[in-house]
Amino acid sequence: MASLLKRAFTEASKLSKQEQDSLAMWILEEIASERRWEKTFADSANILAHLADEALAEHRQGQTHHLTL
Predict the structure, then answer these.
(1) What is the distance in angstroms between the CA of the first residue and the CA of the last residue of the chain?
(2) How far is CA 69 from the centre of its chain?
(3) What is the pLDDT of residues 40-60, one digit of tens each?
(4) Angle at the Cα of 49 (from 58 to 67), degrees rounded to 5?
(5) What is the distance between the alpha carbons of residues 61 and 67, in angstroms, rounded to a whole number?
(6) Who's near 23: CB < 8 A, 6+ residues apart?
């Protein structure tokens, strides 16, 4: 385990049981959310590549406009 994570767990162990449970739930939810994002992004790679190809083709055909800010 990384030393920073060990330090965080050591500090977390000083919290009340309720605070520890809340922190643990938050960590688990964050990990699950990150895994869902990674899977969604990996599953969309082909779709994103297709959309990029379409956008480039439209640009080459002069069907796009420069945005001014």
Answers:
(1) 47
(2) 28
(3) 988 898 998 999 999 999 999
(4) 40
(5) 17
(6) 12, 15
